[in-house]
Amino acid sequence: MNHKKADPNNKIAAENRKARFSYEVIDTIEAGLVLTGTEVKSLRQGQANIQESYASAEGGEIWLINSYVPEYLQGNRFNHEPRRRRKLLLSKREMARLQQSVAREGMTMVPLKIYFNDKGRAKLLLAIARGKNLHDKRESEKQRDWNREKGRLLKERG
User: How many angstroms separate the CA atoms of 24 and 5, rounded?
Assistant: First the structure.
């Protein structure tokens, strides 16, 4: 039997679970992050938070704003600022596409999760999304409740 061990590098460091409820995700893009050493170590501990963060285009670059990566405990004087702006690494074509969709169609760039890929690099899953109205949120809540109930009924019946 060939059992595959779970890769310690390939894990989620932070997830914005409320984003899929508040926004209608149109498209997603994987972006790299410019991080310092203590930020990477802190992300590996999984204490980061991207709930209130967003991405914005400024000066031909895309920035992740208001994301919280706590200070690394053993970092002493080399530590980073927890809420600093972090530059996203994207190709020029991807940046242009993001800026166009934000400017033209009135969409926003919402970070969905920060994770480590197979090579151990920190990546950000960035969504191009449209904000949901209150009735849309209610509809997705009804759908979620129905799916849960449906699963419960199917489990009971066999």
Answer: 35
In terms of Cα–Cα distance, which of 14, 5, 16 is closest to 39?
Answer: 14
Are 63 and 87 in contact by the 8 Å Cβ rule? The answer is yes
The β-bridge relationship of strands 23-33 and 86-89 is antiparallel
* pLDDT by 10s per residue, the chain, length 158: 454 455 555 588 778 888 777 788 888 888 888 887 777 877 888 788 888 888 888 888 888 888 877 777 776 676 767 778 888 888 888 888 888 888 877 788 888 888 888 888 888 888 888 877 777 778 888 888 888 888 888 888 86
Structure tokens at 94: 């991807």
CATH topology of domain 12-132: Small Protein B; Chain: A; (2.40.280)
At 105, is the secondary structure helix, strand, or coil?
Answer: helix
What pTM does this model have?
Answer: 0.71
